[in-house]
Amino acid sequence: MGKFVIAALDNIKGGGLRLLRSHFGEDGVVSGGAFSEDELIARISGFDALLIRSATHVTRRSIEAAGARLRIIGRAGVGTDNIDKTAATERGIIVMNTPFGNTVSAAEQAIALIFAAARNTARADRLMQNGKWEKKSLIGSEVNGKTLAVIGLGKIGQHVMRVMQAAGMRIVAFDPFFPAERARELKVELLDDVDEALAQADFVTVHTPLTEQTRNLLSADRIARMKPGARVVNCARGGIVDEAALAGAVRDGRVAAAGIDVFSSEPMTSGPLFGVDNITLTPHLGASTEEAEERCGLQMAEQVIAYFREGKIANAVNVTYSPDPSLSAYAELAAAMGRIASFLVNAPITEADVRVGGGFFADKDCGVLRCAALKGILGGYGVEGVNDINAIFLAQQRGIRSELILSPDGSEPPRVDHIGLLVRGKAGGIAKETLLAGTVYQDGRKRLIQIDDADIEVRLDNHMLFLRYPDKPGVIGRVGTILGDRGINIENMHVGILKRLRKASMVIGLGSACPADVLETIRGDAKLEIERIYSVNLLD
After folding, report:
1. Who wins on pLDDT, 397 or 44?
2. In a shared domain, residues 296 and 277
3. In this structure, what CATH number is given to the domain that contains residue 82?
4. Which residues contact 372 (CB under 8 A, 6 or more apart)?
5. Quick check: is 130 in a domain?
6. Structural domain tally of the chain?
7. Whether residue 359 is found in the same domain as residue 303
């Protein structure tokens, strides 16, 4: 494995740290506690991968200071809201997490807070520690026979649900992405509206990520409409529950109790939730078990090693496809086709659709082919820093719309396993388009097999010429003579007929790049009547 430097911050330790050091060496791993933004900015340019937990915040300023070296930001845990994922995606940096390493620990913390809220455990402890014995003021509530609303049925929410079902609770749930059939199998009443779930709940537990859709999901209005005397637990993300509204509702007695492990700003040592009887606060302990820290650190180390050793991407939250090594040759082909199309369409591209056909692609996630084609197009435009991670984002910024269109049975011609790239643009008010198709043979050879409606079969070379001209004799020999006189070797050539236009399309593979003055000589030769000529260097 080459020389890489991995930063393992926020006290990532144990088996994960040992595994990183065994692969990258003692001097290849920087370990330590949380970094402030200024500390991170000062050092981030020296890291190939940055691994954190929840304490270090990776801001846009930090990411912009990273330069071109940083490839991965890894979160040893589930939530990634302490990472500016938009900035990372813009720079083509993979953001990974370990979504299942702390499932049990986070679920158990929520369960603990459900029971703590039911039985006033934290308040009872405070009174006892102050020498007070106040049994009558600490009367609680059994969970058995009560209704628990689970907001979010991911792995953690499901674990909480199963344990609390065993404790005798009726479970209602709200999760717009959860299959109704699966909910029936789990004996969960899946509701279509979060307000309906809250209205029925004696206890509410939240297990959603923090997004613009879930921010203030339990707002002041929703809390006011909840069932009187309900209890609220949040071990998911701060910002999902309106802290001030919840504190006011507990003070007023409209909400009987609450257990909160996550906060809108962390670390938090003061705020509306503090000093309120019947609210139990814990400092983001959901993943804070020895077992969870070990699992998450080890899993993150394995993911980073797999990426630098094999190019494998696991649990990336900003990758729009599931990496599939069997598609790597087609991804290289798609990138080359994108670069070629950026020249041939002869207009700023506004649409780029990747069409996939053939049985080889059945049951495969072909999203990487769309990313690769856009990467090629943007590379042809000279956009720097584009890769499979940020290609879609950067294309959208430049007004390029794209779709992945699947025809896995190969019913559309050509009738072989193939990818097609249809690009459209507009120049001078005139709409233009170009269609390319290509395939990969079993031995890995990549071929263009179609340009617009011309059937061809030409291999991809590092240096290629594309010409369009009236279909007439003598052009092949004259172009070959011009190239030969300049000592430019022709390694392969193919001519196809553009049936609709009644033109010829010539593709030439060269042994070296074609100088600009040679292109001008060919273009300016009156006998050739060249309409278009482009030199495409696939190595650039």
Report:
1. 44
2. no
3. 3.40.50.720
4. 331, 332, 334, 335, 338, 388, 391
5. yes
6. 3
7. no
**Three-state secondary-structure class, residue 304:** helix
Q: What angle do CA 138, 144, 146 make, to 5 degrees?
A: 90
Q: Does 318 map to a domain?
A: no
Residue identified by tokens 């509530």 is 141
35-45: pLDDT as tens digits: 999 999 999 99
Instruction: Answer yes or no: do 129 and 75 share one domain.
Output: no
Number of residues assigned to the chain: 540
Which are the contacts of 86, defined by CB distance < 8 A and separation ≥ 6? 60
Give yes or no: residues 166 and 181 share one domain. yes
Tell me, yes or no, whether 59 and 75 share the same domain: yes
CA–CA dist 180, 192 (Å, integer): 10
Domain around 258: 103-281
The residue type at 257: A
Residue from 405, 328, 336 nearest 368 by CA: 328
Under DSSP, the state recorded for 515 is P
For residue 163, give the nearest of 148, 185, 173 by alpha carbon: 148
Alpha-carbon distance of 32 to 477, in angstroms, equals 68
Query: pLDDT tens for residues 427-438?
Result: 878 889 999 999
Are 86 and 107 contained in the same domain? no
Q: Per-residue pLDDT tens for 178-219?
A: 888 889 999 999 999 999 999 999 999 999 988 888 999 999
Is the pLDDT score of 79 beyond 50? Answer: yes
pLDDT over 50 (residue 410): no
Residues identified as active-site: 237, 266, 284
Residue 232 contacts residue 256 (beta carbons within 8 Å) = no
CA distances from 65 to 62, 73, 92, 93, 334 (A): 5, 14, 14, 13, 32
| 14 assigned to some structural domain | yes
User: CA distances (Å), 318 to each of 78, 79, 96, 375, 492, in order?
Assistant: 14, 13, 8, 16, 40
Query: Domain check: are 414 and 513 in the same one?
Result: yes
At residue 510, φ and ψ (nearest 5 deg) are: -110, 155
Look at residues 368, 312, 384, 344 and name the one whose alpha carbon lies nearest to residue 466. 344
Do 395 and 477 lie in one domain? The reply is: yes
What amino acid occupies position 426? K
| Residue 390: predicted pLDDT | 87
For residue 519, give the CATH number of its domain.
Answer: 3.30.1330.90
H or E stretch covering 422: strand 418-427
Q: Regarding predicted confidence, which is higher, 81 or 331?
A: 331
CA 142, CA 359: separation in Å to the nearest integer? 58
| Inside any domain, residue 72 | yes
